[in-house]
Amino acid sequence: MQSRSKSALRVGAMVTVCAFVLTSTAAAQGPWRDHGRHRRYAAGPSIKLGALGGATFPLGATKNGIDPGWGAGVLLDVTGPRVPVGFRLAGTYQRLIPSSATANGGVNLWGGDANLLFTIPGRIPLKPYLTAGVGLYRVRNNITESTGIRSGANTSFAWNGGAGLRSDVGRVGVFLEARYLQIFTDGHDIRTMPVTFGLMVGTF
Asked: What are residue 39's DSSP bridge partners?
């Protein structure tokens, strides 16, 4: 099971990186609406809806009996036309799988995060950014063998922080992001590193 999960993660990581590079390059080469020599900026904030997906890696004591898994979700992204600080609401589902080939079940993490985004200013196609925020997660561990995560279900608060690269051109935005997520639970806190690719559309 472990070798299969590592192979799947390698393929997923390669697909994620390739998708991000191709999408951002296509967006950066798209037509710009210029007035003379000056690029036109939107008068109000940019609001985009999107989806995300990628790999989730357990960290620290969370790795006891647990292999990396996957995650997916939806988001609402709000950024200003000239202000480097933005806001993101995201609802995600993450699933971690057992290390043992004889174990069944998995660890399911349902949650929502409210994050601030600080984008490094500059007129470049790919912009680095920092992100941090808080969240609320429903954790359910139904793995049949012993792990570092308490069995059963519970709801706990969490915090996260990380960095990424994003590209926004008109109504389309893409990003590639890695975060540290800590969910406060009884016993060992759950610590993971989600690495995700996201696609956003629609400026309202």
From this structure: 34
Looking at the domain covering 2-29+49-201, what would its CATH class be? mainly beta
Q: How many CB atoms lie within 10 A of CB 37?
A: 5
User: CA-to-CA distance for 184 and 29, rounded, in angstroms?
Assistant: 44
Domain assignments of the chain as residue spans, ordered by start: 2-29+49-201
Helix, coil or strand: residue 3 = helix
Reported as a single tens digit per residue, the pLDDT across 11-49 is 444 544 444 444 444 344 443 344 444 444 445 678 999
DSSP state of 40: -
Residue 188, pLDDT > 60, answer: yes
Looking up tokens 């299969």 gives 4
Longest dimension (CA), the chain: 66
Residue 67 pLDDT exceeds 70: yes
